Amino acid sequence: RQRAQRADGRGSRADLREEDRVTEIRQLQRVIRNLHGVDSSHIRSERVHLSYRKETLWDGVVEALDGFSARHPQSTFRLAALALLAKALLQTDQAERAIQVLAAEPRVRQQSSLAVLLAQAYRQAQKPIEAARAYQEVYFVYATSPEVKTAEDALYALRAQLGTGFPIPTEELQTARPDAFFNKSRFAEAQKEYGFLLQANSASLFAGR
Question: What predicted TM-score, i.e. pTM, was given to this entire model?
């Protein structure tokens, strides 16, 4: 029966589903063009499942379209959309494009989840020095964030890769790490990190007199 369908030019069910998906994406692009006057490009399709207290709120496919930030600069979802776009670009080996869209957003370094994506984009684009500096920002500034372990592991690998070319973080940046623990009332960790900092920079102004 499938052979007969293909012989008639109608294709398989999978082919028909793909045609429907392509049609829906083109419809979305037309709506965006008509409402906002800009073109958008399709990046990828992402399966999304949302639940609350074990009940499914929504289950379906989200189409990632480039250009959301330009169309909705004041949207509360702007940074979330930027994160989804950056992940989609990295997963499709478009690291340079990911760097462009992340670097264009001034608030990227204000969120650890976005800052680590920028670091990952630099690393995927074979820019180890820029990647190391970006990971250092995550490691020192966002010491209590979920992304700090990713940054720490990457920094170990980059240090081994770069050797003497590994960038040395400034004392000001290093100070941000114990400060982060202190601001979260994690005083034992803060004291430990302040001790490491003073020991490493015993000759600096940060060590006192």
Answer: 0.65
